[in-house]
Structures are given as structure tokens and as C-alpha cells.
Amino acid sequence: MSNLNFVEEMRWRGMLQDMMPGTEEKLNAGMCSGYIGFDPTADSMHVGHLMQVMTLIHFQRAGHKPFALVGGATGMVGDPSGKSAERNLLDEETLNKNVTGLHNQLEKFLDFNCGANSAVMVNNYDWFKGFSFLNFIRDVGKHITVNYMMAKDSVKKRLEGESGMSFTEFTYQLVQGYDFYYLWKHHGISIQMGGSDQWGNIVTGTELIRRKDGGEAFALTTQLIKKSDGTKFGKTESGAVWLDPQKTSPYKFYQFWLNASDDDVKSWIRIFTLKTKAEIEALETEHNAAPHLRVLQKALATEITIRVHGETELNKAIEASAILFGASTADALAQLDEATFLDVFDGVPQSHVTLHDLNAGINLVDLLADKTQIFPSRGEARKMITGGGVAVNKQKIDNPETLVNTDHLINGKYIIAQKGKKNYYLIIVE
Fold first, then answer.
1. For this structure, is 87 an active site residue?
2. Which end of the chain is more exposed for a tag (fewer CB within 10 A), N or C?
3. How far apart (Å, rounded) are the C-alpha atoms in residues 169 and 86?
4. Is residue 197 annotated as part of the catalytic site, yes or no?
5. What pLDDT is attached to residue 86?
């Protein structure tokens, strides 16, 4: 066993929500096997999954054996917990693709080859595919009463809502409960973990183990992450923040963590990094002395980006960030490949001009006022240029008569205009 105490680690990091009586004692008595379920609703995890992934990391670091269950079977049903409507069901081919994607990502976080407490991935489709409906209601359904199932919050909320709840979803807690029973019986798993919204489903499993075989099992849940501004964690204006670089680029992934508020970063650095308490407290002291340097945000973004995307992609993301916020040059902009360049300026207001216009050269005032409407009037454009408040490709220009031409093009078709310190505009030349 490791010297790390799993429950204490979860506690000081602010991750622990609830534990069934006896859970801590069980964990402290020796190596335990525990699992967390992941829904394969996509072929990639997003940052919303990371609380559970970090829980499994700490579980393994403390000397316990982590199991990641992917719900190949339950993904075909749909969990009502925390949902207000029934979700679309997936076909088998899509599920298999998604399961493979999740396994590849989990290998970045967990050690699947370290001896007795190596991580294991299991798929509940393997034990449900041959389980007939009649056998299920005979062997599982008879042990759990409808009264017990109706008392669960996830069921109550859906029944009180307008859309109601299908029988399929109503049985979900039985299906998940059987997962726990099966893993307890065949893999010696004694603890199920998950988000606090999963408490009802988890204890149904412990109850099934008790009623069906007179066995004992335990439960532990983590806190749900709330952002200080009330918006949903893991969502941006462009959608979820994925771990797959094809869905969310390493640059955008890095920026997500770098843009954490001061209120949020103090809890996130505990949850999403493996830094010790002493290391975090030292970083907090440094951060509080100079908040504008964003010491905590950089430490958080660096560690989690390396873990998900590797050091090379982190360095590219840092370079790209420096271009937008640092004293970079047109040469630095030109060094970026087009995909990264477009990532850096994603969300920046865009304007279009023709190559024909640029071939002859466009007066800067004409470009910024008439051609692109970056300034509402020629007078305002002229005034700000003269006052040194305008840059083209990160170079300040204070002469309103300057001509912008094809020499200014980046990657053959872009020009970056800057109004003041923070207002960027992407001019696309077609």
C-alpha cells in the first residue's frame, strides 16, 4: 500500500461529497478494488469527466486497484440522473468506436501495467449481451421494490416533470445496480465511486449485493463542480471542451484553463492537478502577491495540458498565447501553421477584402473604415491611428496614409488589425 491516504487526499482537495458508513475503514484496511462508470456517448471524454478520472488517479496512487467501467450496455439505455429529458440511444457500431476512444484516453491518466493495482477497463455490454429480459427480472428485479426505486431523487424529478419517464429509463438504476453486483461477484470490487448525482444508483447496487447475496459493498461520491459565475463547468460559447485534439485544439484546451477566474482556479488546481498541498499553497502565496501574472492559472493549464496533450503541444499553445497577449511580431505570426493561426484568432471579428484591392494597396483609413467597418467613421480611424492606438500584424502604425498591400499578408491571406490593446480583427483576403 502507498503512504497516500485516499480519503484524506480527496478531502483536502475539496473533491469528497458523501461516503457510506464503513467506506473509509474499508479503504484503510488494505488494497481495495473500486470502479467508476463512464457513459460512451461520444468517442472522447470532455473536461466534465475529469473529476472522475482524477478520482481514479488518486485511488490508484493510494495503492488501490481502479476499474473504469464503460457502459456499452447502459449507453444503449440512458441514465436519467441530472437529465430533464430522455437522450438518444446509440447503435452498437457507434458504441464500440466510442469505447475504444475512451480507453485510449484513460491510458494517459491511469497505469494499466503496474502489477497488483494495475488499472482495468471493463464494458458492461460483455455481461448484459446474453442476459435475457426474463432472466433479468427474475434474478435482479425481484430483489428491489418499486417503492425503493420511486424514492430516488432522479426518478422523482422526472416523474414530476412534463415529459415523464420511460420504463427504459426507470430500469436504469437496476441495470447500474447489477453492474456493481456483477463486478463485486466476479472482480472483487467493493467500492463504487461517482459524482454526487449518482448516489441513488450507487446505493441501489450496494442494496442489490446485500439482498441477493448477503454481501457488503461501499459507496463514495464527489462534489459536482460549480463555477463561481453560475455557468456550467466545461462549457464555452463554442460548446464542450473535449480531450480529443480533433474536437478541441490543444491551444483552446490550454486557454480554457488559463482563463479560469481567480475564484475558480483555487479549487480547480486542487482537483485537476497532482500538486501537493504545500506546492499549491506556495503558488497561492505567489499568485496573491501579483494576481495579474495569473500564476495559479498558468500552473493549472500547464499541468493538465501536458497530461492530456503532451509537452510539445503545450509549448505550441504557450507560443500561440504569447502572440495574442505578448509583444510578438509579424514574423512570429507568420511562423504559426494555418490551423494554429486560425485557432488563435477564433472568435475574433472577421472582415473580408479582395486580393484585387490589396494588389494596388489600400490606404489604412480606407481599409479600417470603408472596407471593413472596424471603425465607424474615417475621422475616428484617422484619430486613433495618429494617436498610436492601431497596429497591423502587431506593428504599430501612426501614419493614416500608410498603404496596406500584399506584403502584409500572413499565410498568404490574412491581416490582423488591432484597435487599442485588446481588440483584434481578422481581415481575410479572398
1. yes
2. C
3. 8
4. yes
5. 47
Question: What is the CB-side half-sphere exposure of residue 319 using CA atoms within 13 A?
Answer: 16
Active site residue 413: no
- pLDDT value of residue 84: 44
3-class SS at 328? coil
Buried residues in 77-114 as b, exposed as e (16+ CB within 10 A): bbbbbebeebeeebeeeebbebbebbbebbeebbeeee
The amino acid that residue 85 corresponds to is A
Domains for the chain: give ranges and CATH numbers: 6-222 (3.40.50.620), 235-326 (1.10.240.10), 350-429 (3.10.290.10)
Cα four-point dihedral sign 289, 295, 296, 299: negative
| Catalytic residue (choose from 235, 275, 378, 413) | 235
Which of 226, 232, 383, 396 is the catalytic position? Answer: 232
Catalytic: which of 46, 103, 157, 378? 46
Task: In whole angstroms, give the CA distance from residue 90 to residue 71.
Answer: 11
Backbone phi, psi, residue 79, to 5°: -90, 125
Question: Residues 184, 209: contact at Cβ < 8 Å?
Answer: yes
Output the pTM of the full model. 0.82
Between the alpha carbon of residue 215 and those of residues 230, 287, 334, the distances in Å are: 42, 50, 65
The verdict on whether 145 is a catalytic residue reads: no
Task: Count CB atoms within 10 A of the CB of residue 326.
Answer: 12
Q: For the chain, how many residues are written?
A: 430
The conformation of residue 75, written as its DSSP 8-state character, comes to G
For the chain, how are helix, strand and coil distributed in percent, rounded to 5? Answer: 50, 15, 35
Indicate the DSSP class of residue 402. P
Active site residue 316: no
Report the chain (430 residues): mean pLDDT per 10 consecutive residues: 88 97 96 94 92 97 96 68 53 84 92 95 91 92 86 80 80 90 97 93 94 96 89 77 91 91 95 97 96 95 96 88 68 76 78 86 89 90 91 88 89 87 84
The CB density around residue 28, as the number of other CB atoms within 10 Å, is: 14
Q: State the pLDDT at residue 329.
A: 65
The answer to whether 51 and 222 are in contact (CB under 8 A) is: yes
Amino acid at 352: H
Residue with the three cell numbers 426474463: 134
Q: Catalytic residue, from 17, 168, 223, 236: name it.
A: 236
